[in-house]
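Two folds, back to back.
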Amino acid sequence: MSRYRILIVDDEPDLLAALVRSVKAAGFDVSTARDGESAIVEVAKRAPDLILSDVIMPGVNGFQATRRLKENEASAGIPVMLMSGKVGPADRFWAEEVGAIALLKKPLDTRDLVQRIEDVLKSRARLEARTPPREGETP
């Protein structure tokens, strides 16, 4: 089985480093970005299997970046998990509205985070295994 690649997006260097360590320790390949705009550029260069992004960042925030990624056919299928220190009803509404699969509350329990990432990727792999090839594709 090939290793999955996770893009982690956060403007806080210490938190970003801690998340990278935890996700790498679980066996994932990791790339990083410091803001939403950099994340969009990174995804265009090499699409990850999952994106874990902070919401509150300078410039393009996590909601805006997720919306732009979901509007692009090439990146629309990439699962996005957002994270924030503020997780109220309006935040949950906007996370769902822009197409995120989860809005996680900071600080994160890294064991729980890794388990959630694994669950999402396993579920996605099972779905893709059941999806028939599109017209013109070979099975």
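---
second:
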Amino acid sequence: MFAWTDTYNASADELLESRGLSFYGQPGNPNPPTVAEMLQATLTSVSSDPDGFFVVLEEEGTDNFPNANNAAGTIEATLRADAAIGVAMEFVRNQDPQYISTHRCRQRGRWLAGVATHPLCPRFP
């Protein structure tokens, strides 16, 4: 499940305003699904597979808005990413108590990587 084109407009606030654009949405698609909605649709589609499934998810705006020096867009993208994390946490809490989380980040020549296998513990909020 993915968006066919960008769902965000990662430009400076001033440029977006001059073009009549908001942070998210494109002409012809003014209200694209959020990353949380795309994840929910994906989980609904793949979670019944008896062989299991693998999901890769990114809220690309969290990378692109900061690159455009758009603080308000960065905050909006972060809130959208947080909502998707909530969908994933709810799925893990209610459907599948075993999961693997991975992350990798390369920003300005620095690397951060990790892999962890987690059973869902009672302390999980």
